[in-house]
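Lecture 7 notes: from sequence to structure.
We start with the chain below.
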Amino acid sequence: MAKLAVGKIIRDRRLKAGWTQEHLADRADLSTRHLQSIEGGKKGASIETIFKLSKAFNTSPGKLLEPLWLSWKEERVLR
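Predicted C-alpha cells for the same chain:
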C-alpha cells in the first residue's frame, strides 16, 4: 500500500506542476524508468530518492509525504 500511496503523491504533485515524467526525472536526477516504477507502485522510493524528489519540487520531504502521514494517522484513529 505504501508504495502505491507514495507513487500517487509523486504523480499528483508532478501533474499539478504541469510536468512530464521526463522533466521531473531530469530535475531529480533519476531515470524516467525509475520514476515510472515509483509512480506505478512497482517500486518503493528510497530515502535518497525522496530527498531528490523533494528538492526537485522545492519542498521538504515532510511536506512531500504529508498526505501519506495524514492518511496513515486517520486510519489509526478509526481503528
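Points to note: The mean pLDDT is 93. The chain is about 75% helix and 0% strand.
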